[in-house]
From TrEMBL:
It comes from Cylindrobasidium torrendii FP15055 ss-10. This is CFEM domain-containing protein. Pfam families: CFEM. It is found in: Secreted. Its main location: secreted.
Length: 85
């Protein structure tokens, strides 16, 4: 489950680039999306972000700490869709 959660949040910052609006993310993710370190990846590089362990870990931790319950599930689903795109 931990790996799935990590992978799920891998491309949160690039959501709008691959056609998913940031508005689909719950409000609890806003500060995470604005402050996460991209670790050398560009916002428009979902492959780089999905495969960057540091980015994935930091984004996941931020989402888990910022979101709870249904919002956490929504963030997971949107991020999964972004990584799968």
């Amino acid at each position: 489950m931990q790996f799935t959660v990590l992978l799920a949040f891998a491309t949160a910052a690039s959501a709008s680039v691959v056609g998913l609006s940031r508005r689909q993310y719950p409000d609890c993710t806003a500060s995470c999306l604005q402050s996460v370190d991209l670790h050398g990846c560009g916002v428009s590089e979902p492959d780089c972000l999905c495969n960057n362990e540091d980015y994935v870990k930091e984004t996941t931790e931020c989402f888990v700490n910022a979101c709870h319950g249904d919002e956490q599930q929504q963030a997971l689903e949107v991020a999964n869709a972004v990584c799968a795109a």
